[in-house]
Design goal:
It is a single chain. Among the domains are: 178 residues, Cullin Repeats (5 helical Cullin repeat like, Up-down Bundle); 95 residues, Cullin, Chain C, Domain 2 (Ribosomal Protein S5, domain 2), CATH 3.30.230; 79 residues, Arc Repressor Mutant, subunit A. By secondary structure, it is mainly α. A three-stranded mixed beta sheet has the order 1-2-6. A three-stranded antiparallel beta sheet has the order 3-5-4. Helix content is 65%, strand content 5%. Pfam families: Cullin, Cullin_AB, Cullin_Nedd8. This is Cullin-5. Keywords: Isopeptide bond, Ubl conjugation, Ubl conjugation pathway. Pathway: Protein modification; protein ubiquitination.
Length: 739
């Protein structure tokens, strides 16, 4: 706007009255040109004339210090008068948006004024100021504007700007550029890298102003809206505020503003929001509301520690669903293998949420893992999870397990999912032992679906827990492969060395003792025809190897023919069952004690054997008295009247409870594993604090099983007694490795 006011003549008092008058005239003309650009102009030539005059005043009119000091002081006085006579009156008469525009205009004009004056008084700035270590002319100008103009009008400017921002929040249109210019003044008055005026005089008040607004908005919506609708409202508020603020606020203010809004809309009401009964996180997870879950994650992931309550409720929900599956089995509404299938399905579902909705965030992944670890380490109807998983693998891999007709890809996917569940189980070594028992059964009784499938799951186990975990299992599969080659060589040996001689067809599997589960040897009496075949194989094997063979007859099977009155039936039985049945080729009736004497077995083994032949599904023997239990006074005879619709039948022995035996083997192996871990740690560390040794050992063992700290401490004492370790003579709490 044009200025029609009569500007006062700014005076400079020196001894050269003519020069001072001329300088005052030039500065008056400069001021007039700045305030009314459409009128007089101030040229570069006039600026040079004014500079020359200042130069003359400082160098030719007396002692340098005496004449330069008044010129320096009057530069400051000149700006003060400009502020008091021109800036103040124009700002005090305006309000609202007009005030902001005038505020910006005054700052621009002031900067133009300073720019010209710096050229005019440049000689002072280059020589007098540095020599006397005084503030530069630019610093003097900035300080004057800050102290006199900014401090006087900053509150008024702040209030108008915040009012305009509030109006825009309610949907009104405002001048973004004007607000940007005003806030730039707040930033510039602090100088380079000093945002204190902006932060203290504007930003703090803005953040304080929005708190009641969004607090009230949250209160109005939290009780009415569903959780997804409330989050949509919060998302729109955040996006809108960010979009508006990006036009005029400093970047650091935008971040603080959004944090304030997030706190009021989300953090204050987070539990009430996420735990809404009809629409909270539990319902979204249960109903698979993927879009809502993604929005929830996107909103809370931008908040510091915002995902903590989400992860806590997520873990709580998954745990609740998993424990419900456990109770189904305990209440007999679901079987154990059905439980495994449901847990796999559950893991697929919530792992999908973590990957697709929660972007594989570590905190949510950890919450899922912790939830599964809770119910995956529970006993399911008296059966441990390691045993259930081993049985599940056995059903997938063995013939007759119900999975023979599925493709390799589907089977590998199922095995991968079982291995995934194993990552949640603490006692992985217990799984390994049960798996070895089942693997032995598949390999020895030709019950496996194929070597490729066996090796696939072993590769997955090895990938997860290392070669030490699968070393024995891989050795068992290798033994089985070598046994097939050995059998071919044995058959060639029979043709070359015993042509024409009648032999019982026999297949022998050579087992490496270190790989296979521990089997109890027996002194079973072998009939002559069987003994001859065993001797032939022994001679064959010892001619090529120098190892001693120990025969495990409890693992053997026989195929024999039972000639009953109705028809001949092929029987598949164990070695001890076959020998017992052969006794009836020469005797019509045999007592319990007779059979025990002929077989040379324990009462427990004889009872199981005779029960399978006389009391089970296939009653090959008659028993007197005809009861369902075996007694030492019972009499047995061949049941010639037995018949079956099938021409081939398999007669299994009653199962022996192996859990106790497996647990004992695992506990024994754990002692060795703890010892090895302790020695390995101490061998590398040489000396270590007692508690530190316990902690490092626990951490090392956690990949295989969750160790009992008392067991670790007990093994440390044992190793000290065995002189593998020792206590430090000066500090009993320090353990020393004995080399």
């Amino acid at each position: 706007m044009a200025c029609t006011m009569n500007l006062p003549l700014l005076k400079i008092t020196t001894s050269d009255e003519e020069g001072c008058a001329y300088l005052s005239e030039k500065i008056h003309k400069l001021t007039t040109a700045i305030e009314d650009p459409s009128g007089l102009s101030f040229s570069t030539a006039e600026c040079i004339d004014a500079y020359t005059l200042v130069f003359d005043l400082c160098t030719k009119r007396g002692p340098y210090e005496e004449v330069s000091r008044p010129v320096y002081d009057h530069y400051k006085k000149l700006l003060e008068e400009y502020i008091e006579l021109i800036v103040f009156p124009s700002l005090k008469k305006e309000d609202g948006v007009l005030f902001l525009r005038e505020f910006v205009r005054r700052q621009v004009n002031y900067n133009v004024m300073v720019k010209w004056l710096l050229h005019i008084f440049e000689y002072i700035d280059r020589h007098f100021v540095p020599r006397n270590k005084l503030p530069s002319l630019k610093e003097v100008a900035s300080t004057l504007f800050c102290d006199k103009v900014f401090d006087e009008f900053k509150c008024k400017a702040k209030d108008v700007v915040i009012t305009l921002i509030s109006q825009e929040r309610e949907g009104e249109q405002i001048d973004h550029g004007l607000i940007k210019q005003v806030l730039t003044i707040f930033l510039e008055v602090g100088g380079v890298n000093n945002m204190k005026p902006y932060e203290d005089d504007f930003e703090a008040h803005l953040l304080e102003n929005i708190t009641p607004y969004y607090s009230k908005k949250a209160s109005n919506h939290i009780y009415i809206d569903s959780c997804p609708k409330y989050m949509l409202m919060a998302e729109e508020c955040l996006k809108g505020e960010k979009s508006r603020a990006s036009h005029y606020l400093h970047l650091s203010s935008i971040e603080k503003l959004l944090e304030k809004i997030q706190h009021e809309l989300l953090l204050v009401n987070v539990n009430q929001l996420l735990e809404k009964q009809q629409s909270g996180l539990h319902v979204m997870l249960q109903d698979g509301k993927v879009e809502h879950l993604e929005r929830m994650f996107n909103i809370f992931s931008t908040i510091t520690e915002g995902l903590d309550p989400v992860a806590m409720l997520f873990e709580k929900h998954v745990t609740k669903v998993g424990m419900a599956l456990v109770k189904e089995v305990e209440n007999a509404t679901s079987d154990e293998q059905g439980f495994i299938r449901k847990v796999i399905k559950l893991n697929d579902k919530y792992t999908g949420y973590v990957k697709n909705c929660f972007m594989d965030h570590a905190l949510l992944a950890k919450a899922l893992k912790q939830a599964f670890e809770i119910f995956c380490n529970k006993s399911i109807a008296g059966i441990s999870m390691p045993e259930l998983l081993a049985t599940s693998c056995d059903n997938i891999l063995k013939k007759g397990g119900g999975y023979e007709n599925i493709g390799d890809g589907d089977m590998e996917e199922m095995l991968e999912k079982v291995v995934m569940l194993l990552t949640y189980v603490n006692q992985k070594d217990l799984f390994a032992e049960f798996y070895r028992k089942n693997l032995a059964s598949r390999l020895l009784f030709d019950g496996r679906a194929g070597d490729d499938r066996e090796m696939f799951i072993l590769s997955k186990l090895k990938q997860q827990w290392g070669s030490e975990f699968t070393f024995k299992m891989e050795g068992m599969v290798a033994d089985s492969r070598l046994a097939r080659e050995s059998q071919k060589n044995f058959e060639n040996y029979l043709v070359e060395n015993l042509p024409g001689k009648s032999q019982i067809s026999m297949k022998a599997t050579i087992l490496t003792r270190a790989f296979w589960p521990t089997y109890k040897p027996s002194d079973l009496h072998i009939p002559a025809e069987m003994r001859n075949s065993i001797e032939v194989f022994t001679n064959f094997y010892e001619s090529k190897n120098h190892r001693k063979l120990t025969w495990i007859f409890s693992l053997g099977t026989c195929k024999m023919v039972g000639r009953f009155r109705s028809k001949a039936i092929r029987l598949r039985v164990t070695t001890s069952q076959a020998i017992a049945l052969l006794l009836f080729n020469t005797s019509d009736r045999l007592s319990y004690q007779d059979i025990k004497s002929h077989l040379n077995l324990t009462d427990e083994d004889v009872t199981r054997l005779l029960h399978s032949l006389s009391c089970a599904k296939y009653k090959i023997l008659n028993k007197e008295p005809n009861t369902m239990t075996i007694s030492s006074t019972d009499i047995f005879s061949f049941n010639a009247m037995f018949t079956s619709r099938m021409r081939k039948i398999e007669i299994p022995l009653p199962l022996v409870e192996e859990k106790k035996e497996v647990s004992e083997d695992v506990n024994k192996d754990r002692r060795y594993t703890i010892d090895a871990s302790l020695v390995r740690i101490m061998k590398s560390q040489k000396t270590l604090d007692y508690q530190q040794l316990v902690m490092e050992c626990e951490e090392l063992l956690n990949r295989r099983f969750k160790p009992d700290l008392r067991a670790i401490k007990k093994r440390i004492e044992t190793l000290i007694e065995l002189e593998f370790l020792a206590r430090d003579a000066d500090d009993p709490k320090t353990i020393v490795y004995v080399s």
